[in-house]
């Protein structure tokens, strides 16, 4: 059972401010996404063998932005409701949730660099499995503080379950190794030099 750990928890001022609570996860998520390179990420996604029900790559940006905003609002709502309570147990649950929230946000931000940047599907799938578990526990903890906050986390938790399925499915279908899907090709600009591309990448539409 995780307790409140101020040293690894986001500052209280962030949870108490609605704009900061909502915008911080959104900004961090967008920052990580662009640091990995959206075009490269999309090409990698299309190149790998995918399990059934995979969404088109254009879906992920809007979905994740919405979920980051929702999780931020959940944090603000739980914090302001819980810390105003006269019940010491409710206050403790609120702060415990703040630590869990910080941990899950860190795990969330690590997944994309692991999966697309470092191409480590085993570690990425383990990461998102732990992330889903932590978020489920966070939802349970904050449901005892404010049911509205818990409901705000419900779409995020559902999407994490789906994302875990996709991560594990892609890893399994590609033998948990993305490196053997790469091949060397000549660059189109100069006709010389070597570049990397995935062997089963879908052909571009002319």
What does this structure look like?
The chain is mostly helical. It contains seven helices and two strands. It has a two-stranded antiparallel ribbon with strand order 1-2. The longest helix is centred in the middle third of the chain and has 30 residues, at 88-117.
Beta content comes to under 5%
Question: Which bin fits the share of residues in helices?
Answer: 55-70%
- The number of distinct β-strands equals 2
Strand order of the largest sheet: 1-2
Gap between N and C termini? 55 Å
Poorly predicted parts: 183-195, 197-202
Provide the succession of SSEs: HHHHHHHEE
Mean pLDDT: 88
Determine Rg (CA atoms, Å). Answer: 20 Å
Structural class: mainly alpha
**Largest sheet entry:** 2 strands, antiparallel
Shape: elongated
Helical segment count: 7
Give keywords.
elongated; mainly alpha; two-stranded antiparallel sheet; 206 residues
Describe the structure in brief.
The chain is mainly α.
SSE order and pairing:
Blueprint: H1 12-16, H2 18-36, H3 38-47, H4 60-83, H5 88-117, H6 121-143, H7 147-173, E1 182-186, E2 194-198
Antiparallel strand pairs: 1-2
